[in-house]
Amino acid sequence: MVSILWLCLLWIDNVWTENSTKELEGYPSGYLADCPGSNKEAIITKKSLKYLTITVDNGLTGRRRKYNYYETSELARDPDLDFSKKTMLYVGGYLDSPSFMFASTIALIYRELGYNTLLLDTNTFTTMEYPRAARFMRPVGKHTAKMLADLTQEGLDPKKLELIGLSLGGQTASFIAKNYELLTGVKISRLTGLDPAGPCFRNLGPEDRIDKSDADFVDIIATNIDGYGMAAPVGHVNFYVNGGEYQPGDVLWTLCNILCSHIRSFTIWISALRNPHSFVGLQCDSVQQAREKLCYDREPIVTNVLGLNSDRSRHGIFYLNTDNKYPYFLGEKGIIKENDFYLSQTKALNKQNVIKMK
């Protein structure tokens, strides 16, 4: 009996001292990976469609005009719209609004770049419990696509149309793009997902979340893949910023929580608009490689640039090393392992062979 007990204790000890492995630890399922029922039907009534609006933002002058679902013909004649130019439609995230900082900031920069700037207001349909808001983004996408299809009849060129969605807005933009193609038979030019929402979408198929089939070119900037974002490389080009899990803090590099990391996708995109060719990503063979910063030794070295000048022919997963302070970019230095922000910072703290508390 004693020998059996001894063997059991020895076996338990071996289990508890086993080396850490992914098979032992498991892989992250992510925050709210599943929201049962969130992809069921949701209806926006004719009465409520008046709350679905698109704002034309001049940006440079601060002039704004808002048009609801029933005013598309008036929207097409807005004096600040010129359909010979490229058009950007920004779709904000959960509880976001064109009145908030994110929309006004991105509108200003795109206007400076010569774009028509449109801001979608989904606030009425997101001011509720998140899983229900996620459900309503499907009809929001359908009805917004109808507005854009009507604008196409007035001269909007889908090959000059770019959608940008932050968080839940990334998924909403996907539904817009999907429905636009159903209505017109043509894909839009570009869809950019700024850490598109993972909660309620992470385990769904491509018909129910953002996917590279949504547009001619889909790029993803991932900054919080296990929290508010999603890990799957669903775009043509997928940038995993500092591995995609968490970002270094602006004040103290160890402090950037889930929301801070999630929103970093937006500030990095803003910086990339201001600093083209400055965010250079290094291709990886898998998302796990990007998580663990194991892409530096991959051969051959393949890079791509985050931003409007991404090489659309270089598809795949890219690890993007950044600094912890705006404007974040490291340029070509960022593809050298010795310059990796996290690795170099932690190595510097422990460069001495022996440390002593005096």
Automatic annotation (TrEMBL):
GO terms for molecular function: lipase activity. It comes from the Eukaryota. It holds the Pfam family Lipase. Its main location: secreted. Keywords: Secreted, Signal. Residues 1-17 form the signal peptide. Residues 74-328 form the Lipase domain. Belongs to the AB hydrolase superfamily. Lipase family. This is Lipase domain-containing protein. It comes from Pieris macdunnoughi.
